[in-house]
Structures are given as C-alpha cells and as structure tokens.
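agent> step 3/5: call structure_predict on target 'Shikimate kinase' (Gemmatimonas groenlandica).
agent> reason: downstream docking stage needs a structural representation; sequence fetched in step 2, passing through unchanged.
tool.input:
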Amino acid sequence: MTQPAGLQIDGHLVLVGLPGSGKSTVGRAVAKRLSRPFLDFDAEIEKREGISVSRIFAERGEAVFRGLEFALTQELAAAPPMVLAPGGGWVTIPGAMALLRPPGRIIHLHISPKEALRRLTRSRIVRPLLAQADPAMAMQSLWDRRSGLYALADVTVNVEAVDSQRLIDSVVALAHDGTLGIG
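tool.output (status=ok):
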C-alpha cells in the first residue's frame, strides 16, 4: 500500500551494500532529514564490546561478529523506526532481513567492487575482510558472494550514477511515499 505524501513509513530504513557504498554517510544524512535516530551497527557493536570490529574479527572470528549483528537486529526489530546501517555482510545472516520487514524497507546502495575499493583506499578506513594480500580480489569475492542477497532489497540505487545529495533526497522520498525520486 502506498503511503500518502508526507507520511513516513512506520518501519526502519535499512541501508545495505558493499563496504564503501556510503551506508553510514547517507544514513546519517537521511536520519537527520527524517528526524529519526541513526544507528551504525559497527559503531554500536564496538561500543558494546569495548573493542574494534577488526579486533572482533581477528580474535573471535567472523561468525561471532555476525552473531552480534543478529542479536542487535533482534533487539531493533521492536524499536521505533530508525535509519540503520548494518555491516556489508549483514545480508548473509539467515533471517536478519526478515526480522525488519515489513514494515521496514531495505535499500541496496549498489557500487562496483572497483569503486568501493577506491573509496575505502581513499578514506583509509580499516576493513577486516579487505586486510588481505589482494584487496581487489577480496572485494570482488565479497560482491560475488553477496550480490544475490543484495538483490533481495526492496530498492536498489546505483550510488555511482547519482550525486550524494540526490541519493539522500531519493532515500528520504522512499521513506515518505515508497517511491524513489531517481529518474
């Protein structure tokens, strides 16, 4: 059912995509425009665990980290509507997406592996899954494993084809009436 103009959907907006797709940056801006809280899963998990995501991966393994993401997702399922930015691998957790929709909307911020790596290299953000001898191959591998799961999102937006302000405007429009303003 389409919402009347001006009425926000009553669920979370969940931004998914490869590392470097802009989930946190776009999410913060969209949350501000919607007057909703924003939650970056990595930052929240680091705060709760008292160590970095990189250390969680190194010391406890990816499975433990995904378990922490799933527990946070379960907790958020009953929370008031927010803009959420889970880690890029959140989509690989069985049942995670189903916990938040409906009424939540999942938006895939699509970016090519090459551009994602370029952005991450430029930002100098340490990503545990990319700390390998061949980061380009690692990023391509992430895409190969996750692309089918990203395709399950309610909407896909190519972030390389749209400037950041138009992307933010479009995600805000989706929150209001269920459509994207990208032509």
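agent> step 4/5: record observation. The first strand starts at residue 13 and ends at 16.
agent> proceeding.
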